[in-house]
From TrEMBL:
<keyword id="KW-1003">Cell membrane</keyword>
<feature type="transmembrane region" description="Helical">
    <location>
        <begin position="141"/>
        <end position="163"/>
    </location>
</feature>
<keyword id="KW-0472">Membrane</keyword>
<dbReference type="GO" id="GO:0001525">
    <property type="term" value="P:angiogenesis"/>
</dbReference>
<dbReference type="GO" id="GO:0015026">
    <property type="term" value="F:coreceptor activity"/>
</dbReference>
<dbReference type="GO" id="GO:0009986">
    <property type="term" value="C:cell surface"/>
</dbReference>
<dbReference type="Pfam" id="PF04901">
    <property type="entry name" value="RAMP"/>
</dbReference>
<keyword id="KW-0675">Receptor</keyword>
<protein>
    <recommendedName>
        <fullName>Receptor (G protein-coupled) activity modifying protein 2</fullName>
    </recommendedName>
</protein>
<keyword id="KW-0812">Transmembrane</keyword>
<dbReference type="GO" id="GO:0008277">
    <property type="term" value="P:regulation of G protein-coupled receptor signaling pathway"/>
</dbReference>
<comment type="similarity">
    <text>Belongs to the RAMP family.</text>
</comment>
<dbReference type="GO" id="GO:0006816">
    <property type="term" value="P:calcium ion transport"/>
</dbReference>
<dbReference type="GO" id="GO:0031623">
    <property type="term" value="P:receptor internalization"/>
</dbReference>
<dbReference type="GO" id="GO:0043235">
    <property type="term" value="C:receptor complex"/>
</dbReference>
<keyword id="KW-0732">Signal</keyword>
<keyword id="KW-1133">Transmembrane helix</keyword>
């Protein structure tokens, strides 16, 4: 065997090993979701206790990892502060990110019915007494004034245009 044919053979084996290694790591990533720092922990928990990432496993993780933090943070606020978006926006965003990260790691679509129900429960527990400002129609008097004003102005504007053209006498 010559030096060029053996280096060709060696290069072919090396490329094959690189491709195989890439595909095997790619399979590990796709089985467990993304590469966040907690993903392997989440996946191994689900595989150990449920055999695979399931909605039951996601439910347990959301309860213990996301909701406990959110509940504790909300408990540290006064009930009156719950209705101020400035006070709860960071907590709410962190909860949303937590549910999304765990779902992504377990390769479960987000949002899903469980996550939606979690947020509905949170709203019914913490935000049900918050006043909501709903848009409503203005009183009929205001509507009438806003509608009638342009209608009355149209004949006035037409009259002014006609008078201006009659008085111009062709010299504009």
């Amino acid at each position: 065997m010559t030096a060029t044919s053996s280096s060709f053979l060696f290069s072919g084996c090396f490329v094959t090993l690189l491709i195989w290694g890439y595909h095997s790591t790619e399979m590990t990533v796709t089985i467990c979701g993304n590469n966040s720092h907690h993903c392997q922990e989440y996946c191994s928990f689900c595989y150990n206790f449920y055999g695979a990432p399931t909605m039951d496993c996601l439910s347990i993780m959301l309860d213990h990892l996301c909701l406990l933090k959110f509940d504790g943070a909300m408990a540290s606020l006064n009930n009156t502060d719950w209705c101020s978006w400035g006070n709860v926006s960071v907590l709410y965003s962190n909860l949303s990110l937590c549910t999304e990260e765990i779902s992504d790691c377990l390769v479960i679509p987000w949002p899903n019915q469980l996550v939606e129900q979690t947020f509905v429960d949170i709203h019914s527990r913490f935000f049900k007494d918050c006043p909501t400002e709903q848009l409503s129609d203005p009183p009929p008097v205001i509507v009438f004034a806003l509608v009638i004003t342009p209608i009355c102005l149209i004949p006035v504007m037409v009259s002014l245009v006609v008078l201006k053209t009659k008085n111009a006498d062709g010299s504009s």
